[in-house]
Every structure is written in C-alpha cells, then in structure tokens.
Amino acid sequence: MATRELYWNIENHWLIYPMLVIALGFFCYGFYQRLKLWRLGQSENRWQNLGKRIGDVIVYGIGHKRIIKDGFPGVMHLSIFWGFLLLMFATTIVALQADFGVNVFNGGLYIFIKITANAFGLLAIFGILMAIWRRYVQRPDRLDNKKDDAIVLVLILTILVTGFVIQAVRMAAATDPWGVYAFVGYAMAPFFQGFSVETLEGIHSFLWWFHFILVMVFFGYFPYSKLSHILLGPANQFLRKHGPIGVPEKIDFEDESLETYGKSKLSEFSWKTLFNTDACLRCGRCQDNCPAYLSGKHLNPKQVIQDMGAYMGEMGKALKEHNNAKPALAGAHETTEEVAVAAEVPSEEELGLRQLIGEVIAEDDLWACTTCRSCEQQCPIFIEHVDKTIDMRRNLVLMESRFPSEAQLAFKNMENNGNPWGIGWSNRAEFLTSLGVKTLEENPEAEILYWPGCSGAFDTRNQKVAAAFVKLLQKANVNFAILGNEEKCCGDSARRLGNEYLFYSLASENIEVMNGYGVKKIVTQCPHCFNVLKQDYPEFGGQYEVVHHTQYLNELMQAGRLQFDKKAGQTVTYHDSCYLGRYHEIYQEPRTLLQAAGFTMLEMSRHHEKSFCCGAGGGRMWLEEHEGERINVMRTDEALATGSNLVSTACPFCLTMINDGVATREAEDQIKVQDIAEILAGRIS
C-alpha cells in the first residue's frame, strides 16, 4: 500500500509538542491583547443570520469573490491562499496518523496528498514571488511597505522552499517507490545524489528542525503581524453588516439620558468598528477607488482606518500604564458605587491621548467624503468606512456646531423652507400642478405617490426631468398624484452631513403626512430620495414600497404600457449613480430602457460597481471643493472619452454635476447630458 515512514530520520520528535505549546501560548496571548482593545468599544450584535454569515465566508473568503476581480493581486492572493489551504490539509492528515493514531495517510489519499501538496505548495511559492514583485518592484501607490511585510514574505517563502528541499533530500537518501507523485521533490532529488547517505541524513535532520521552528515562529508571530488577517479577514466577512446598507444609527432625541450625539472618542464606537481597524488588510483597494483621494484631496480611506487602529494601540498602551500606576486598592470599598467608579475605563482625555477628531483624523477629511461607498464596495473583507464618517460628522454638527460654512445655508433653507434652495415652501407644487398633476388631497385614489423631490420641484434644469417623467406616466395611463406643498425635503443631505436633528424633523413631518393619506407606493426620480425613503424612513414609522423611476418605467415597458421608437446608429454612455448602483445594485434597468429606445451603450472606463462618483453625494452637492481637482470634471472627462454625444443619468445631482463638468470643459457642442426620462419622453411611440 502506498505510504511512507513518518518522522523518518527524526530523533526526539516528541520535542515538537512543548514547542507547539509555546508557540500557541504566544498566539493566544497576542489575540487576547487585541481582544481587550476591541472590548473598549460599545456592544453591538453581529451574530444573527449565522447561515448567511457562514455563506459569506465561503463566497468571499474561500472563494475570493471580490479579491479575484483585482487582476494580478487577485491571482496572487488566491495562489497563496489555496496553496496554504491544501498544505494545511496535508499537514492535518499527517498529524492524524503520526500523533493521534488514525491510519489514514496511505493508499489513494496518500497519493492525492503527494500530488496536491506539491502542486499547491508550488502555487503558493508562485504567489509569494508575485507578492514580492508587486510590493518591491512594481511598488503601486496604494501599498505602504513596512518591515513586517518583508518579514512575513521571507518567512513564508522560506517555510515553503525548505519543505520542498526536505522532501528532495529524503528521496535522495532513501528509496521512495511513490516519490514520483511528489513531483517537485522528485525533480529536485538528483541535485543531492552526489552526497553520502550520512551527509544527506544530517542535512535532512537539520532542515527538518529548522523548517519546524520556522513554522512555530509563524504561529507565534501570527497575532503580532499582518499574518493576523488570515483569521481576521474571514472573521470580518462573517461579521459584516447585513440588511440595508448606509443607514446611520438612529438617535433617540427623546432619550434624556443621552449626553452626547455622534462620536468623537474611540470608546464611543462599537467593538466591531475597533475590530475593523485590526482586520484591515492594508491592500489599498479603498484608496484606489476613492474619488476624494483620486482627485487630490487629503482624505485616504485606508489611512483613516489605519490611523484609528494605531490610535487604538496608543489607548491600549496608555490604559496599561494607567493601571500599573494606579495604587493597589487596599481592603474592601465602602460602597458599591466606589467599586463601580474604580472599575470605570478612563476617558481619552484622562489618559492624555490626542483627540480623535482633528488630531488623529483631520476634520477636512470627514467633509471630503462623498459617501459613495466605492471604498466599501471594493474592500474584500467589508470594512465599514462611511458609517464612521457620518458618526463623526454628527458630533461636529450637533455638539460642536463646526461644519463647512456652505452647509449652514443648506441647513437653514431646509429648516425654514423645507428645501436646500431656500425657495418658499408654498411654491413647491406650482410647477407640477401647471402640468395637470393632482395632489393626493385632490386625488386620494391615486395608485402611486410621485415624489419629485426638491430638485424636481424647484431646480429649473431638473424640472424638465419631472415634466418628462409626468409625460411618460400620463402616456401609460398611470393614476398618480403628488403631496404638493405638503412635501418637505426628504432629509438625505441633512442626515449625511451629520445634522440628524434636522433630518428627524423633516422625516417626521413627511411620514406623518404620508401615513395620514395611507400612502403605499412611492416613485421617485432621485436616488437620494429613493434611498432615504426606502431605507431610512422605516425606522421612523414610514413603511412604504419605494421604487426608482428607472425601475418603474422598466415595469411599464415590460407590461406593454410604454413603447419607444428606435433610431439606429445612436450611442449613449450611462453614468451609474452611487445611491442607485452601489447602494441598491440597480445597474441593468437603466441600460435596458436605453437599449429599448435603440441606443448602443458605450461604457465609461469605470462603470457599474466601479462607477466613479459625480461628487455630490453625502451632502457635498451643497459644499465647495477647495482642494485638488473637481470630481465632477474628472467624471465628465471619462464620459467625453467614450466618444458618445449623449450622457444619460438617473439622478438630479449627477445631472447637475456632469452638466457643470461639460460647461467647465466647454464641451456643450460635443456632448449632451439628459436624464433617462427625458430621453424616453422624446421617443414615445
């Protein structure tokens, strides 16, 4: 039967057990120290839907669904991962027989392990060499080389290479009838056949122990190095947020026990937020896809996470010094209150640490974020960047009253007039009623509530979109109505800019009005309204079916209620709105509509889930860009590069930003920007 002698030529192999215990001691102690730091955060439940979470680890961890999309580094990481996975399997089988007496390392399984261990060990070496080439020869901007990176790569490469050399030396010293299946060692064995058996046995014994010690160093060093991501990465995938994404944590303004709003201290974040900082791979995918960073802003999403992680380490060190300096408490405390006070964790200020906002993370970085979530979409382990940003914005707005001056005007306009433009609220219904649209008060039997949003009601350019959409609804004989002057701003910009109280006020009024009318279904032309009505309002009592106008028009077309004339030979490039695409994965419906109208799609260099933000999200529609290149102009350049003479959008903010970009490039004669509704309204058959 196919097999071989285990521990061949190895004396005193029992020593591996105390060495293993020592290595595991370092391993467990290291993670225990990290665990104590994570526990500085607030409680948060990330354990529901266990089946789905296990599936996430299989798909994104073992299957590398996101990582493999990244070309060269994706193949590199997959090679290392699967190489080690199969080598670990082989090691486990050997240990079962050698150390636990389970007779399995023979026959067909023995041959299988010989082949796979060699094939995947070679694959792992290939992956490590790719990593060395990428990190130290190509040196992409997104990778920041540290001493630990070199140590880890050299350590793993040495373990892999010595494993093959040990195999080759053993086959050169002793006949192995099954050696051909270990094809790497078998190919290397002839290079050692000039040595005597005694010399080969000496080399084998030395290398075996050297290899084993390196493996123990690997385990002991694990939690203190980037190797920890091997466990923390899949753990973060397992713990990722499920359900609606991008919904900020609700603040209960009626809770009088709340002393602060938002978060300005590390200890105010959840344990999962602190865990994120250790799980981060430092791969830089977020950096490579952040519109703020790519346009020359100081904000770097990877650096934010890394800086928070370093700050957590500072806090842990300061706490240790604080506890060591604290005099021993003699005797029992007189009251339980004294015991509780003594057990409290001192604040960052009491520990003499830097301020999180301003000193660890620059305030300008918080306002530079467009909340496009491209960083999160590309992150292979689901680090949550944007929620942290909004939490810190909330603290600046609600507690410190520190925010960009332009935001002050938007807040004031939303508070006084129910829209960011500051136009009198009593004029909201004027434009749409002039088109024959009735209000819900006039038409309480309406099938749907059409929500034009502030843009459709007040912005001259987007009123054309509203008019086109109304034309399409009327053509399809849809019974619809609007709230008219009873509609207020949905509050999206207020919430994403951190003014949670203003959002709460606007949302509460809107929900009260819609619930009073018994609204069931809402159609909106703005992805920001769509997102906040669909995802944010339910937590405040607003339970509605909300669809975007591209979804609804697609439904009408599929039902035969809308038909379009096709004109051959015309092209269009479509800009994916962040709040429609990445937030809701609505990519195909807009393209289906454009193709139904006879257009040939010319995609921009970045599209679908990698679409480049227009720069208006997260309330930045109302802020100026004072640093770097303008994001909307960069996106406009991508549209111009397609060669199409038409850009289609499905978002009023995107429409405005790309229109401005075209004007900046003085390309009005070269390319036209229209909402999908406008394009389709011009092609009704």
Description:
With 685 residues, the protein is mainly alpha-helical. It folds into four domains: 226 residues, Transmembrane di-heme cytochromes, Chain C (Fumarate Reductase Cytochrome B subunit), CATH 1.20.950; 123 residues, Fumarate Reductase Iron-sulfur Protein, Chain B, domain 2; 141 residues, Rossmann fold (3-Layer(aba) Sandwich); 120 residues, Rossmann fold (3-Layer(aba) Sandwich). It is 54% helix and 4% strand. The strands form two sheets. The protein has a four-stranded parallel β-sheet with strand order 2-1-3-4. Strand 7, helix 28 and strand 8 form a beta-alpha-beta unit. Helix 27 packs across helix 28. The longest helix has 32 residues. The radius of gyration is 31 Å and the shape is elongated.
Structural descriptors:
685 residues; Fumarate Reductase Iron-sulfur Protein, Chain B, domain 2; 4-stranded parallel sheet; single chain; Fumarate Reductase Cytochrome B subunit; 29 helices; Rossmann fold; 54% helix; 4 domains; mainly alpha
Q: Which secondary-structure class do the elements indicate?
A: mainly alpha
Q: Give, in spatial order, the strands making up the sheet with the most strands.
A: 2-1-3-4
Number of domains: 4
Strand element count: 8
Q: Please, what is the average pLDDT?
A: 94
Second rung of CATH, namely the architecture of the largest domain: Up-down Bundle
Strand content: under 5%
Major sheet details? 4 strands, parallel
Q: Report, as a whole number of angstroms, the end-to-end distance.
A: 77 Å
CATH names the topology of the largest domain as Fumarate Reductase Cytochrome B subunit
Using the CA coordinates, give the radius of gyration.
Answer: 31 Å
* Level-1 CATH class name of the largest domain: Mainly Alpha
**Unreliable runs, pLDDT <50, ≥5 residues?**
329-334, 336-343
Question: Please, what is the CATH homologous superfamily of the largest domain?
Answer: Transmembrane di-heme cytochromes, Chain C
Helix content: 40-55%
The geometry reads as elongated
Continuous helix count: 29
